[in-house]
From TrEMBL:
Alphabetical list of SUPFAM superfamilies matching this protein: Composite domain of metallo-dependent hydrolases (SSF51338), Metallo-dependent hydrolases (SSF51556)
Cross-referenced Gene3D superfamilies: D-aminoacylase. Domain 3, Metal-dependent hydrolases, Urease, subunit C, domain 1
Ranges for domain Amidohydrolase: 49-516
CDD domains in the record: D-aminoacylase (cd01297)
UniProt cross-references to InterPro entries, sorted A to Z: Amidohydro_3 (IPR013108), D-aminoacylase_insert_dom_sf (IPR023100), Metal-dep_hydrolase_composite (IPR011059), Metal_Hydrolase (IPR032466), Metallo-dep_Hydrolases_sf (IPR050378)
One Pfam family in the UniProt entry: Amidohydro_3
Any GO molecular function: hydrolase activity, acting on carbon-nitrogen (but not peptide) bonds, in cyclic amides
Annotated source species: Streptomyces lunaelactis
The protein's name: N-acyl-D-amino-acid deacylase
GO cellular component, one term: cytosol
Length: 543
């Protein structure tokens, strides 16, 4: 064999009890598992043998919600995720990413999500289609595997533009064609960002038609739905009903119940999901194990202020009368960008800026910065939006710990970092989600057993992605594996030092090759695009 781990505590991803075993790796796959005390034959031997006594051996972790779309190209080593034991990320989230596009759409989407991924000035955008983007990842070489969701907001931008109106029949057909092409080229499903423009301008009938295409290809729909605040439960109900009508699998992105209106309301969400599951719905969800959220400051604006795209937003912000209307919607009415809840500026902390000259804002709330200037918070926020050209990211401190804990216990829960790697002070979830689950929530708090936690992070997401040979430590499966110390594994990242790497994860392998060895990043780029392999539809959607 190429490699043998001796005396490992195997946590195989099923959720069942762990066991001691020797595990042999050959040609990138798990070739033999010999349990302690099983049989009398010889133990497997290898070109290299590693004593794993005291360590747990598990499948590699699958990040079901990642924003590494440009980070993988900018920094293929990708230590932020590889060091956590992540061996596969799902990109194209929240309805906004970089394929499929034409030249004009690419220009606009780069502006729209500068806060998530930078402006891309350091990237050669030599692709336009989903397949070409996945090819680029493979050609360049990446540290971890990557799957892709077709971003519905980008598709709408491509076919309709930034107008807040129903799509025409011809535009819907064009969007269906773009979704079908992306799925044929390897996308695993479709995402939406229904509090982000222009995706939020789509009504349910439009989304249902697109989801029917996704269902024909065996993919899944991953919506950031229309509200995580006021009306959150109704927003979840909308997605459940929509996908049931379309016959499409549903995966709820960063599923939580935030803001004061939803304190202690996780049981209401879980009851809704249980009723739907018991009735035959195909539903899963992901969460990150933290209470604050993270997005862009411009996302807080009302949707009418974002119609027309980034340049139109800046024009409105510069006009005093229009800016006052925006303020009134945000502070008094509760804008749809802020989930229908009047904004509380003391919960909005700036985590990153595109213009380094504005770095003194980072780490402070809008309320704090405004008080230092002896001005109203909206004045501070408006100035920052304009001067940073909408590129500022925020932490939004509106979550509830008990909601987080209850949702992560659910039978269809998986892990997703929602990690934005951009900015001076990113959310620590980008560097710490998976060890935080293992160290804080499993070992310290006992919210889940270690075996259950690993299943949530491995086999469950692999099943959602329909991956036939990943997510378990099993003979014949790919050797995407993590060795960690159950007694010490922990996130190193904190809100004060968010880029600190985790501890207690000495080895990470992808296809049997060490990407992390003895706690250090190797130069191996073993990742590749993971493309949808499900059935073709019986008839391609009409163009």
């Amino acid at each position: 064999m190429d490699l043998v781990f001796r005396n490992a505590r195997v946590i195989d991803g099923t959720g069942g009890p762990s066991y001691r075993a020797d595990v042999a790796i050959d040609d990138g796959r798990v070739a033999e598992i010999r349990r302690e005390g099983a049989g009398t034959g010889p133990r497997p031997t290898g070109t290299r043998t590693l004593d794993a006594a005291g360590l747990a051996l598990s499948p590699g972790f699958i990040d079901m919600h990642a924003h590494s779309d440009l980070a993988l190209l900018r920094d293929p080593a990708h230590e932020a995720k590889a060091a956590q034991g992540v061996t596969l990320e799902v990109l194209g989230q929240d309805g906004l990413s970089y394929a499929p596009v034409d030249d004009a759409t690419l220009t606009e989407v780069r502006k729209a999500i500068t806060g998530w991924n930078g402006d891309g000035s350091d990237i050669d955008f030599d692709w336009r289609t989903v397949g070409e983007y996945l090819d680029r990842l493979d050609r360049q070489g990446i540290a971890v595997n990557a799957a892709y969701l077709i971003p519905q907001g980008t598709v709408r931008m491509y076919a309709v533009g930034w107008d807040d109106r129903p799509a025409t029949r011809a535009e819907i057909q064009r969007m269906k064609q773009l979704v079908a092409e992306g799925l044929e080229q390897g996308a695993v499903g479709m995402s939406s960002g229904l509090t982000y423009t222009p995706g939020m301008y789509a009504d349910d009938s439009e989304l249902t038609e697109l989801c029917r295409v996704v269902a024909q290809y065996g993919g899944y729909y991953c919506p950031h739905h229309r509200s995580y605040g006021a009306g959150a439960l109704q927003a979840y109900e909308e997605m459940v009903s929509l996908t049931r009508d379309a016959g499409c699998a549903l995966h709820l992105a960063h599923a939580t119940m935030n803001f004061g209106v939803n304190k202690d309301k996780a049981p209401d969400l879980l009851a809704l999901l249980d009723d739907a599951l018991d009735a035959g719905a195909d539903i899963s969800l992901d969460t990150y194990p933290y209470t604050p959220g993270c997005t862009t400051l411009v996302a807080m604006l009302p949707s009418w202020a974002s119609e027309g795209g980034p340049d139109a937003i800046l024009t409105r912000l510069r006009d005093d009368g229009t800016a006052e209307r925006i303020r009134h919607h945000m502070e008094v009415i509760g804008s749809d960008g802020c989930h229908g809840v009047p904004i509380e500026w003391d919960t909005i902390e700036i985590s990153g800026v595109s213009d380094t000259g504005l770095a003194d804002c980072v780490g402070r709330t809008i309320a704090h910065s405004a008080a230092e200037r002896a001005e109203a918070p909206w004045v501070t926020a408006r100035r920052l939006l304009i001067n940073d050209r909408l590129g500022s990211t925020i932490l939004q401190h509106v979550g509830h710990e008990e909601n987080v804990r209850q949702i992560m216990r659910h039978r269809v829960h998986t892990g997703g970092s929602d990690g934005i790697l951009q900015g001076c002070k990113p959310h620590p979830r980008a560097y710490g989600t998976f060890p935080h689950y293992l160290g804080r929530y499993a070992r310290e708090l006992g919210i889940l057993s270690l075996e259950e936690t690993v299943a949530h992070l491995t086999s469950r997401p692999a099943a959602r992605l329909r991956l036939p040979d990943r997510g378990l430590v099993r003979e014949g499966y790919r050797a995407d594996l993590v060795l960690f110390d159950p007694d010490t594994v922990a996130a190193g990242s904190t809100f004060e030092s968010p880029r600190t790497l985790p501890v207690g994860i000495p080895h990470v392998l992808i296809d049997g090759r060490f990407v992390i060895e003895e706690g250090r990043r190797t130069d191996v780029l073993a990742g590749r695009s993971v493309r949808r392999t499900e059935r073709r539809p019986s008839a391609r959607p009409a163009s």
